[in-house]
Design goal:
Layout lengths: L1 E2 L10 H17 L6 E4 L3 E4 L2 E13 L2 E11 L24 H20 L3 H11 L6 E4 L4 E8 L5 E4 L5 E4 L4 E3 H11 L1
Antiparallel strand pairs: 1-5, 2-3, 3-4, 4-5, 6-7, 6-10, 7-8, 8-9
Helix pairs in contact: 1-2, 1-3, 2-3
Length: about 190
């Protein structure tokens, strides 16, 4: 999807959250019965602890504004690839999956809905809806192979991840590869 948002460049990361939320809603609207979908910051759509899909963004920034933004969405509808060290899942593992042609118009509609909310100053509404689908507060997360780790405490106004370390200090993460640490710990025990 190509969009030309009328928001400040600092709010650009919110579009990853927006797209993930819209993707979950579109799947639920198109499918009669679907397992519970969840979001993992910044761009993963999950079923349980397995990745169903993800969001990629690319943008052109001029000064403090976004000229254009491309949103790419990918989901394992029929089949999930085997990826070493990662759990993946497909909708086809649970239900008859929708076709991309059935899913896309609903996805575009949900992106438009959330984009209009964001651009009209209702970013708090978007963040609250995203948080309802995110891992619960206190979930242990690691960023960039555990270089940074802590307990999930939410997201800031621009969509950055907020983690608390053991002393309660809050780190704000603007980008990185995020893992659920419980999954990493369990995987390590299984490999021994």
């Amino acid at each position: 999807m190509l969009v030309r948002p009328s928001i400040a460049a600092a709010c650009g990361p919110l579009f990853a959250l927006l797209a993930g939320l819209a993707f979950c809603e579109a799947i639920e609207m198109v499918c009669e019965s679907v397992p519970e979908l969840a979001l993992k910051w910044p761009n993963d759509v999950m079923i349980g602890e397995a990745k169903l899909g993800g969001i990629l963004l690319d943008a052109e920034i001029s000064g403090d504004r976004i000229d254009w933004l491309v949103i790419g969405c990918g989901a394992n509808l029929v089949h999930a690839p085997e990826i070493p060290g990662r759990q993946s899942v497909a909708l086809g593992d649970f239900i008859t999956p929708p076709s991309p042609g059935d899913l896309m118009p609903v996805l575009l509609s949900r992106v438009d809905y959330w984009r209009s909310k964001l651009e009209s100053g209702h970013g708090a509404m978007l963040r609250a809806a995203w948080l309802l689908r995110a891992h619960p507060a206190g979930t242990k997360l690691g960023v960039d192979a555990g270089r940074i780790h802590g307990a999930f405490v939410g997201i800031d106004d621009n969509g950055a991840l907020r983690l608390a370390d053991n002393s309660g200090r809050i780190a704000t993460i603007r980008s990185g590869d995020v893992e659920l640490l419980r999954v990493v710990a369990e995987r390590g025990r299984q490999e021994r």
